């Protein structure tokens, strides 16, 4: 299975492009699509799900152009959009039965899939509860269940953890990880820990362009031996921000503990620390803005 994107672009107005010149190939596993808000992630998702047509370039699924032949991918596609709607007066079981019928599943197949997916998403005990009683995190897990009803070969999820508390975010990431076998999963988000804990490869978008598509390990290696932590007086923090890519700050009694990226120690007392994916991501975005 392979999703191939070649020189893809979407133009909204004369000088406004949602995405531009994106080329990458995704095979089995979870591919994190990471970028700040407005980077073009949702535009790309809408093209991959055949909701929107691109202005330039092509997308192929197993060698077939899905822009010209969208039915080549629709039967094997599962999609959880950023704004997932439900029918609040239906129970979970009724809702999944309805969605299964829309996708042409017979009653026996639908029943078996619903049993399997409520276990996968940890929703077995609430099958008979109405959806209007579900928390935000539970609704998102319902979204994953409905996206998997047809056992899709291509699963696309757009910002699935936005607005969730930490516990629900962990549950949702676990559910996604458990779905990744024998399928291509595209996880679009601006939340770095979501992809750090689930993705095999990461594609970074910024300003509508692809910055990199590589493994988590390779991306982190880009900032190896370049991450430092040290404490500075609060009055010096703005100067530090002007000089370096600051990854995070924490208030301490002695001042502000700063974590940053630098090619050499920024101060005599700066301690070199192991890099994280968030460090590497922020560095990639910063490098793009300096170009």
TrEMBL record:
InterPro entries (UniProt xref): AAA+_ATPase, ABC_transporter-like_ATP-bd, ABC_transporter-like_CS, P-loop_NTPase
Keywords: ATP-binding, Nucleotide-binding, Transport
The keyword Hydrolase belongs to this UniProt entry's keyword annotation: no
Pfam family, one: ABC_tran
Keyword Ubl conjugation: no
Chain coiled-coil ranges: none
Residue stretches making up the ABC transporter domain: 3-232
Protein family according to the UniProt entry: Belongs to the ABC transporter superfamily.
UniProt protein name: ABC-type multidrug transport system ATPase subunit
Gene source species: Natrinema hispanicum
């Amino acid at each position: 299975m392979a999703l191939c994107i070649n020189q893809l672009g979407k133009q909204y107005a004369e000088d406004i492009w949602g995405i531009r010149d994106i080329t990458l190939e995704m095979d089995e596993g979870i591919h994190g699509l990471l970028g700040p808000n407005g980077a073009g992630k949702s535009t790309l998702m809408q093209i991959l799900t055949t909701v929107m047509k691109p202005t330039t370039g092509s997308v192929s699924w197993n060698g077939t152009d899905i822009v010209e032949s969208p039915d080549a991918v629709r039967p094997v596609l599962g999609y959880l959009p950023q704004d997932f709607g439900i029918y609040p007066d239906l129970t979970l079981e009724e809702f999944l039965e309805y969605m299964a019928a829309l996708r042409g599943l017979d009653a026996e197949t639908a029943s078996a899939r619903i049993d399997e997916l409520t276990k996968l998403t940890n929703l077995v005990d609430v099958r008979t509860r109405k959806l209007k009683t579900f928390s935000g995190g539970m609704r998102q897990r319902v979204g994953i269940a409905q996206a998997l009803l047809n056992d899709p070969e291509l699963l696309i999820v757009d910002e699935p953890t936005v607005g969730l508390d930490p516990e629900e975010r962990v549950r949702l990431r676990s559910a996604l990880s458990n779905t990744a076998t024998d399928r291509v999963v595209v996880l679009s988000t601006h939340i770095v820990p979501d992809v750090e804990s689930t993705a095999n490869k990461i594609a970074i978008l910024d300003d509508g362009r692809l910055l990199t598509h590589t493994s988590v390990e390779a991306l982190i290696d880009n900032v190896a031996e370049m991450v430092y932590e040290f404490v500075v007086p609060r009055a010096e923090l703005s100067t530090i921000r002007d000089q370096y890519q600051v990854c995070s700050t924490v208030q301490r009694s002695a001042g502000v503990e700063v974590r940053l990226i630098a090619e050499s120690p920024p101060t005599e007392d700066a301690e070199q620390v192991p890099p994280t994916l968030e460090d590497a991501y922020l560095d990639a975005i910063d490098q793009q803005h300096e170009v």
